[in-house]
Automatic annotation (TrEMBL), chain A:
It comes from the Bacteria. This is Cell division ATP-binding protein FtsE. GO terms for molecular function: ATP binding; ATP hydrolysis activity; transmembrane transporter activity. The lineage of its organism: Bacteria, Pseudomonadati, Pseudomonadota, Gammaproteobacteria, Pseudomonadales. One of its GO terms (cellular component) is plasma membrane. It holds the Pfam family ABC_tran.
TrEMBL record, chain B:
One of its GO terms (cellular component) is cell division site. InterPro entries: ABC3_permease_C, FtsX, FtsX_ECD, FtsX_proteobact-type. The chain crosses the membrane at residues 62-82, 209-229, 257-280, 308-327. Residues 97-188 form the FtsX extracellular domain. It is found in: Cell inner membrane. It comes from Pseudomonas matsuisoli. NCBIfam families: FtsX_Gneg. GO terms for biological process: cell division. This is Cell division protein FtsX. Pfam families: FtsX, FtsX_ECD. Forms a membrane-associated complex with FtsE. Belongs to the ABC-4 integral membrane protein family. FtsX subfamily. It is a multi-pass membrane protein. Residues 214-333 form the ABC3 transporter permease C-terminal domain.
Length: 222, 337
């Protein structure tokens, strides 16, 4: 699914985000990427989303080389990926339904299919009854679940999450992680960047540990 | 390491986007008809969304359209006025007459035969003869020099034939004048087209002025649309970033703004048409009164339906192009952060 071969990211100001990173992720895996602030977690996610390009090595996502991908191909690559952000990135002038429907509208699905899929996604995150409400009317945890529903509504092959529990209390964080595990059981590869080691340890999944852009650990958490 | 797989989970190929192909090429993707309908629905949604955003701020949208309408109506209004003046000039030119002065010794019979000969010419609409005596009477009435003229040994004024041509082309008029001057018994033929030439020169200058003004105002209009769309883009920056992150193409991002530009243009086009129709109607009262003083039934033409329709289409196109330029310029800056 994902293949990093000696992937490096060096910025024009000389800062090195990643040093010759190599690892592979199989389809359907659930893994964490952890490390302190500045370790390179966000850089890794940005490379996978083609928001940045590697400056060295080979990075393949579903067989596509992200170093040579054209700008026109990027939207179609991103349609294979679901993204969950720490700050949710919801659109506050749209209802919960419309927020979740956005990826499907972009895919060009018809209204009936969109309605069915959005309600299924909201049901999966236990927010079916909030479909017509606006994000501002929801709690932080509920907003995060709307973000997750939006990330999975188009059934992506890969789900990326950047500190998805960063703003949540431990009970809510565990609940959100449970949602991710449910999604993973449906066959979606899940990659979560987090520095919450206690939470990661409880989940017992594969964990990549980064330090100053280098991979210093790759094994099961806990 | 390995994930626990749900036996009921869909295979990767059953997932949207899992094949890495465009939606219309997926194994389980919609067929062409469904995809086309969805594409139409997407356009309809963009149009409705743009309309909703414009009507949400009615005053702002109205004034933006009004500014565009004024910019559109200025050159269009001037152009319509010029075509009206050209029409008036044309009718005056058609009324141009050639005065054919006969030799002093031409007899009354010769004058009459000349009048008939000239009337047969193909470029002649009408002829009217003025005898030497009639010319003298008219001159005495107009100048008040009756006593002085009566003391002259003989009438110094020649007989005149006033020729009304049926052509308006200056070259043809000049050729006719020369032909008339060459007739035996004719002393001189005079055609006064200087004022027509001056009017034509002024109208040509006016045409150039309107063209220059049009170019400037079209540029101003593109700037107005571009700036308005830029503000809309700024207001929707967060939304655009999210759309790009979840796989929205540049075309998808661009579409609602293009509709918005076209809608601004549509509103501005109709407003400009209204402005021009009312403006010309308002001016017409004064023009009719002035023309009446010169025994003319001249009146300004309104905005022809064809011109009005072209104005609206042009405005929509300008709105669309202005929006396109604005979005193209700002789209690059809207990469997700």
């Amino acid at each position: 699914m994902i293949r990093f071969d000696q992937v490096a990211k060096r910025y024009p100001n000389g800062h090195v985000g990643l040093h010759e990173l190599s690892f592979r992720v199989r389809r359907g895996e659930f893994l964490f990427v952890t490390g302190h602030s500045g370790a390179g977690k966000s850089t890794l996610l940005r490379l996978l989303l083609a928001m940045e390009r590697p400056t060295g090595g080979k990075l393949l996502l579903a067989g596509q080389d992200l170093a040579t991908i054209t700008n026109a191909q990027i939207p179609f690559l991103r349609r294979q990926i679901g993204v969950v952000f720490q700050n949710h990135q919801l659109l506050f002038d749209r209802s919960v339904f419309d927020n979740v429907a956005l990826p499907l509208q972009i895919l060009g699905l018809n209204k009936r299919d969109i309605g069915q899929r959005v309600m299924t996604a909201l049901e999966r995150v236990s927010l079916k009854d909030k479909a017509l409400q606006f994000p501002a009317d929801l709690s932080t945890g509920q907003q995060q679940r709307v973000g997750i529903a939006r990330a999975v509504v188009h059934k992506p092959a890969l789900l990326l999450a950047d500190e998805p529990t960063g703003n949540l209390d431990p009970r809510l964080a565990a609940e959100i992680m449970g949602v991710f595990e449910d999604i993973n059981r449906l066959g979606t590869t899940v990659l979560i960047a987090s520095h919450d080691l206690a939470l990661i340890a409880r989940m017992r999944h594969r964990m990549l540990t980064l330090q100053r852009g280098r991979l210093i650990g790759d094994g099961e958490a806990g | 390491m390995s994930a626990k797989q749900d036996p009921a989970a869909p295979k990767p190929a059953e997932r949207v986007g899992a094949t890495g192909q465009r939606p219309d090429k997926q194994d389980d993707g919609p067929d062409f008809k469904t995809f086309f309908n969805a594409w139409l629905e997407s356009h309809r949604a963009s149009l409705v969304d743009s309309l909703r955003r414009l009507t949400k701020q009615p005053i702002g949208s109205f004034f933006t359209s009004l500014v565009m309408a004024v910019a559109l109506s200025l050159p269009m209004g001037l152009s319509l006025l010029l075509s009206n003046v050209e029409r008036l000039g044309g009718s005056w030119q058609r009324a141009a007459q050639i005065s054919v002065y006969l030799d002093l010794d031409a007899s009354a019979q010769r004058s009459e035969s000349l009048r008939e000969e000239i009337a047969q010419l193909p470029d002649v609409e009408d002829v009217r003869g003025i005898s030497r005596e009639e010319a003298l009477d008219e001159f005495q009435q107009q100048t008040g020099l009756g006593q002085a003229l009566r003391e002259l040994p003989e009438n110094p004024l020649p007989g005149v034939i006033i020729v009304t041509p049926n052509v308006i082309d200056k070259a043809k008029l000049d050729a006719l004048r020369q032909q008339l001057e060459g007739l035996p018994g004719v002393d001189q033929a005079q055609l006064d087209l200087l004022w027509v030439e001056r009017l034509t020169a002024i109208l040509n200058l006016g045409d150039r002025f309107v063209f220059g003004l049009t170019v400037l105002l079209v540029m101003a209009l593109l700037l107005v649309v571009g700036n308005t769309i830029r503000l809309h883009i700024e207001n929707r920056r967060a939304e655009i970033e999210v759309i790009k992150l979840v796989g929205g193409t540049d075309g998808y991002v661009r579409r609602p703004f293009l509709y918005m530009g076209a809608l601004y243009g549509l509103a501005a086009g109709f407003l400009a048409w209204l402005l021009l129709a009312f403006g010309l109607d308002w001016l017409n009262d004064a023009v009719v009164r002035l023309a009446g003083l010169y025994d003319s039934a001249f009146a300004l033409d309104g905005v022809p339906a064809g011109d009005g329709f072209s104005l609206v289409c042009g405005a929509v196109l300008l709105g669309y192009v202005g929006a396109w330029l604005a979005v193209a310029r700002h789209l690059r800056e809207l990469a997700p952060r």
